[in-house]
Amino acid sequence: MMQVVDKRDSRRQDLLLIVVSIVLGAGLLCIPTGLTDSGTSHKSARTVATILEVDNSLVKIIGPVAEGAQQLVIGITRGPFEGEVLESTNVLIGKKELDKFFKPGDRAFVVLDLTSDHSQVAYANIIDHYRTDKTIFLVLVFFLSLIAVSGWIGLKAIVSFIFTGIIIVKVLLPAFLWGVSPVLVAFGVVTILTAVIIFLVGGLSSKGLVAFLGSFAGVLTTMLLAIMFTHWFQLNGATSPFLESLTYSGFGHLDLVNMFIAGIFIASAGAVMDLAMDISAAMFEIREKYPGIPRTELFRSGLTVGRHAVGTMTTTLLLAYSGGYMGMLLTFIARGVPMENVLNMVYVSSELVHTLVGSFGLVLVAPFTAMAGSLVMVPFEPQEEAATTPVATQAADLVT
């Protein structure tokens, strides 16, 4: 009967956290950032069009890239101008990461420039292939899969996922553009997100508290290490795509170095939370099965779990980060650039600091979480160290 009551109380707490997260997220969505307008100006309109005809006579294929311009005939399929057939030009500058190449039957995202009376289209700007519907489909499939596999916990994970996205778009990034200290605002946002995510998934329990304490300590350590090594390596923070060009377009006040530092511990925060929750959950189960386990033995068990998890998690971070700069590494290898030259390039040094500092902070999460678990989960009693050796031995066997 007690377990049923506890489960009901836990479910009520979870529902309360879900409702609070949804309300806060909805409130943030309604607050304008003040950096951009609401989306579409009065003299333009966003819409979707189908590519009806393509004229590639002005396109020159040079090796793997195309230059020139495609002459397009498009049919508007959405909005007040639905059914109209228009002509447009798709300029190709010879850079695949920026160019888009259309063929008949493709769907395109289009911005229509309107006349002064808004009754006619002056020009149709082809932005890119239309992918909104595909994105929504992919997100829905992901959410349904998460619920099918994880059930109630999966639903809570979805709420935390959406809340995190809202916080990043409506708080973190606008604060960067406003000129707020990137390190301070990022640390505050990550701390809030860590609390929301962990307590949503782990519940308002000692397990959740231990995971939060371990995560907080890990993120704090990663932030301090990132500050130290970024300045020691003399990194300028301008290696991230688009950041430097952003400073030339009205945002010269951006602190690129501190934004780079913030990016290091933001990127590793997810892995830190994963590891902290794994260790906390394992220690919680050990404590439940063996209530008489001494604090020192529970701490050792937590460290044992942490050692095994860290062994694979650091490699996971390396693989995750390396995927982002694979093109750079391929370029250096293809050109036969000597290794010492590579190691002293600012791009490579930035990625090395990003990867190793994030991994170093992850390594320290294990002892932080194990210490927090031993202090929170085991009550302070004079007789706590008098537990029998067989109990400690049986608990240790669970994690070996």
Characterise the protein shown here.
By secondary structure, the chain is of the alpha+beta class. It folds into 2 domains: 46-130; 179-398, no CATH class. It is built from 12 helices and 6 strands. Strands 1, 2, 3, 4, 5 and 6 form a 6-stranded antiparallel beta sheet that branches. Strand 5 (107-114) and strand 6 form a beta hairpin. Helix 5 runs antiparallel to helix 11. Residues 1-5 and 383-396 have low confidence and may be disordered.
Helix amount: 55-70%
Distance between termini? 34 Å
What does the main sheet amount to?
A: 6 strands, antiparallel
The backbone outline, from C-alpha atoms, is globular
| Class of secondary structure makeup | alpha+beta
Which properties best describe this structure?
400 residues, alpha+beta, 2 domains, six-stranded antiparallel beta sheet, 62% helix, globular, disordered N terminus
